[in-house]
Amino acid sequence: MPLAYRFGMKAEPIAVLKKALLRLEHGELLDVCQRLIRFKKENKELLTYLLFLSDDEQSFVEYLCEEIDESFREHPDAHKKTLRKIIRWMDKCVRISGVKETEVQVRIHFCRALNDSETNYLRSRVMTNMYTGQIKKATKAIEKFHDDVKREYEYELEELARHVEIA
Questions:
Q1: Contacts of 83 (CB under 8 A, 6+ apart)
Q2: Collapsing DSSP states into helix, strand and coil, what is residue 115?
Q3: Quick one: which H or E segment has residue 85?
Q4: Which domain holds residue 29?
């Protein structure tokens, strides 16, 4: 066995890890999960989502949208740094969820909230790029949606994109 594997420096492929997890007994699996959640905050957040929030995705979306609104209330005239912080948090939550419709709804809500806020993001090329980046990510996420749902979201995204074109 190579030295890197003996000291855990190289991660195994997911398929190998899955097979190893399947061989574990219930108690051993619980111990592995407990070690994972103690190791990194993101692991704990993911497990919290999976155990308590994933069964009601719409409530999770509403919670994320409320948090975005609260961020804009706290920072009515947000700057680049604030927008980056909101987007980083949003990206993490969307990644944890893994549901494309959640991603689209949250990104659209962010763009609407930014438009409704006192933040003049059009004054800065960087902030404008952040805005259009969210539109591009949402557009990419809807590619595999059913045509009816896809059209509805495309219309909303086109409407949001016009805010940048007008300026």
A1: 114, 119, 121, 127, 130
A2: helix
A3: helix 80-97
A4: 3-39
Q: Are residues 91 and 117 in the same domain?
A: yes
Q: Give residue 123's Cα distance to chain centre.
A: 26
At 2 the pLDDT is: 53
Structure confidence by residue, pLDDT tens digits, 14-31 = 898 899 889 999 999 999
Instruction: Give pTM, 2 decimals.
Output: 0.83
- What integer best gives the mean pLDDT of the chain? 90
Model confidence over 81-137: pLDDT tens digits? 999 999 999 999 999 999 999 999 999 999 999 999 999 999 999 999 999 999 999
Please state the domain count of the chain.
2
Joined together, the tokens standing for residue 78 give 């947000």
| Domain-located, residue 50 | no
CA pseudo-torsion sign 141, 146, 152, 158:
positive
